[in-house]
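Why do we care about 3D structure at all? Because function follows from shape, and shape follows, mostly, from sequence. That is the central idea of this module. The next example makes it concrete: a single protein chain, its amino acid sequence, and then its structure expressed as tokens.
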Amino acid sequence: MAASGDSCPKCRAGVYVIASSQRSGDYQTRYLRCPRCGATDKQTLLAVEVRRRKLFTNAPS
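And the structure:
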């Protein structure tokens, strides 16, 4: 399973970006796309992890 920012395994030159995101229950699915070659993949996370990550990234330093 790929993550946003991972290098594309197909063209090896592009980097996956989040094309869309969908939340269903406790899970969030991110659909990733390589802008260079158009390859797609998806990443599934627990929504609790996403919320926790946002709390820490928005904290003042």
